[in-house]
Amino acid sequence: MFDAAEYLKHLGYDGPRTPGLDTLRELHKRHVMTVPFDNSANAAKGLAVWDEVDADVDVVFRRLITEGEGGVCHELNGIFRTLLAEFGFTYTLLAAGVRGPGGGFGPDLEHMLLSVPLDGETWLVDVGFAGLSFVEPIRLSSDEQTQYGVTYRIVDQDGYHLLQYRGATGDWNDVYRFHDTPRELAEWKAVARIGQDDHEWNWAGEVIEAGTVVRSRGTEDGKLLLVGRRLLRQSSGVERMSVLVKAEDLAAAVTEIMHPRQEA
Questions:
Q1: Which of 17, 46, 234, 262 makes the best surface tag, with the fewest CB within 10 Å?
Q2: Domain count, the chain
Q3: Rounded CA gap, 219 and 33, in Å?
Q4: Of 38, 126, 161, 174, which one is the catalytic site residue?
Q5: C-alpha 45: how far from its chain's center?
Q6: Average pLDDT of every residue of the chain
């Protein structure tokens, strides 16, 4: 059963239990560093994974928090929005299309995220995105916002809000685009029904075949991302990619992402 006290203990959070920006930042950061993205249980489903978008929060909580496993975007952002409500935050459920090959984007309901209003501003909240993205919430603004060596901004393009990031060097990279229109879970259920035979999805400028296992977790200064055997380490805005040929190297990377306390 969902238990806020157990949740906070898992995150290592013992701060204020009232809604505020500092609280939101700390909860968000601890979540992406502690509860990993892991699609291994759903990798073969393609868009049919959305059929479970309305899964019982108690069931998801037990698997992700009590048992310490990882989940996909709707599971991670699902239990997190339940925690935010416990703190007195209000939120809006949003949908995004992820950057695909050739500069295009996937369908609008390809990813789930949240927005949270605080003190007259809107903050983007997303603890469920597998790719490179913000560790702490970012303000819905075109102003540049830097976290851990990576700069983010949200610009308006073709009628969408477009999230972009730039590392320590290089150009701006598109992440995903979205509207600020509130969404309902039933909209993703409809995607699952029409996408039963869709066996690929967009991710970070490429198409990923269903069956590809993706795992990721935030770190103190960036992110760890494992796509199949490709390991990407982002640290202070610098990205390093390697291909893990040896089974023991792959196993070590999985442990580092999925069991950070054990690794420590």
A1: 262
A2: 1
A3: 5
A4: 126
A5: 18
A6: 90
8 A C-beta contact, residue 172 and residue 244:
no
Burial class (CB in 10 A: 0-12, 13-18, 19+), 220: exposed
Nearest to 198 by CA among 107, 261, 125, 123: 107
Of these residues, 10, 73, 161, 174, which one is catalytic?
73
Per DSSP, the residues of 3-20 read -HHHHHHHHT--S--S--
Write down the catalytic residue from 74, 111, 161, 174.
Answer: 111
Report which of 35, 125, 32 is spatially closest to residue 84, judged by C-alpha positions. Answer: 125
In the residue annotation, 126 being an active-site residue is answered as: yes
Model pLDDT for residues 20-56, shown as the tens digit of each residue: 999 999 999 999 999 999 998 876 666 667 777 888 9
d(CA 231, CA 234): 10
Q: For 141-155, what is each residue's pLDDT tens digit?
A: 999 999 999 999 999
State yes or no: is 73 an active-site residue: yes
Cα distance between residue 263 and residue 83, in whole Å? 27
Specify the pTM: 0.92
CATH number where 153 lies = 3.30.2140.20
Expressed as residue numbers, the domain containing 85 is: 4-263
